[in-house]
Specification:
The structure is a single chain. The chain has helices at 2-22, 27-30, 67-70, 76-85, 125-131, 149-152, 172-178, 181-186, 192-207, 258-261, 275-292, and strands at residues 45-50, 53-65, 71-72, 92-102, 107-110, 141-143, 156-157, 160-161, 167-171, 211-214, 218-221, 224-228, 237-243, 246-250, 268-269, 295-297, 306-311, 317-321. The chain starts with a helix and ends in a 7-residue tail after the last strand. Strand 13 and strand 14 (246-250) form a beta hairpin. It is of the alpha+beta class. The protein has a single domain (45-321), classed as Ribonuclease Z/Hydroxyacylglutathione hydrolase-like (Metallo-beta-lactamase, Chain A, 4-Layer Sandwich). It is built from eleven helices and 18 strands. It is 31% helix and 27% strand.
Length: 328
């Protein structure tokens, strides 16, 4: 009986297949068609609370960078070994992040991504800001860590200011350096683009009376202050956010490659204006963050780029990314 039943089922399946083949269908056609791959991520934002402040990390995208060629004060072999421990190879897919702080009374943006200045894989900042529930017109103030293209390019949308109601602020040393026509004229041909990108991004805000420079350590709005961290550029600035006893340091380009520079903070990068000063600022920032346990975020740490540092007892540190939160 069991044999006869199995034989009957087998004959039924065979009959179904034969019918399909007779109609010109292949074996694959008889199965459900494969869904096409989507090949996009979810909108690039991540939110957390810091005391009473809401902090939203905004992704501008990622860019492939040849870190084996860009990093300095090290060797290609050491870079390769360090990257390998993080299951990476060069070129490294590198995040470009900015951070939006809602203090309850002010909407403050730190850095704006690259806009159109750094290639086709970046320039997603405004779209992701909108996806996060905010509009560019709502931003009150924008604080620039430094005037490299991947931090200021998003200030513009074509020939219009992308944030029409915002005051843009940056350290005077950076403004004096990157917005100087004399410095542009004197720059080497392969360095002129840095100046041109800064000028194209900032000058419309200057012309509109929407740019305000500050000098060194300065409180900008209650709960957000600028802290000089000169070295990567002449006026590179860290922004420290504090609310209800919680603290977040927004590092900008104090570092670039977690896999290499957390293990060896002395490693620098070709983009540093003063590599020695940049390394000293990085070491100081690492030690303070590890000792005091506050949050840190980096413009080029893997998105959302927020976490803590833990000391190892040696020169290196361990990066502890933020545990995912649903804000409940």
């Amino acid at each position: 009986m069991r044999f006869s039943r199995r034989l009957g089922i087998g004959l039924a399946v065979a009959s179904h297949l034969a019918f399909g083949l007779a109609c010109g269908l292949s074996m694959t056609d008889l199965a459900q068609a494969a869904a096409p791959q989507v090949k996009t991520q979810a909108p690039g934002y991540y939110r957390m609370m810091l005391g009473d402040f809401e902090v939203t990390a905004i992704s501008d995208g990622t860019v492939m960078l040849p870190m084996d060629k860009l990093l300095t004060n090290t060797t290609p072999a050491r870079i390769e070994k360090a990257l390998g421990r993080w299951y990476l190879t060069s070129p490294v897919e590198t995040s470009v992040n900015g951070y939006l702080i809602n203090t309850g009374t002010k909407l403050v943006l730190v850095d704006t991504g690259a806009g159109t200045l750094f290639g086709p894989t970046l320039g997603n900042f405004v779209a992701n800001l909108k996806a996060s529930g905010y509009q560019p017109e709502q931003v009150d103030e924008i604080y620039i860590t430094h005037m490299h293209a991947d931090h200021v390019g998003g200030l513009m949308s074509g020939d219009k200011r992308a944030f029409p109601n915002a005051i843009v602020r940056a350290d005077k040393k950076d403004a004096d350096y990157w917005l100087s026509q004399a410095n542009l004229d004197a720059a080497a041909p392969d360095a002129k683009g840095f100046f041109q990108g800064a000028m194209a991004s900032l000058n419309p805000y200057v012309a509109a009376g929407k740019f305000q420079a500050f000098e060194g350590d300065t409180e900008l709005v209650p709960g957000v202050r600028a802290v000089a961290s000169y070295g990567h550029t002449a006026g590179h600035t860290t922004y420290v956010v504090e609310s209800k006893g919680q603290k977040l340091a927004l590092w900008g380009d104090l570092m670039h490659v977690a896999a290499v520079q957390f293990g060896d903070p002395s490693v620098t990068i070709q983009f540093d204006t003063d590599a020695k000063a940049a390394a000293a600022e990085r070491k100081k920032a690492y030690a303070d963050a590890a000792k005091n346990g506050y949050w840190v975020a980096g413009a080029h740490l893997a998105f959302p780029g927020i976490g803590h540092l833990r000391a190892t007892g040696g020169p290196g540190y361990i990066w502890v990314p933020a545990n995912y939160t649903s804000l409940r």
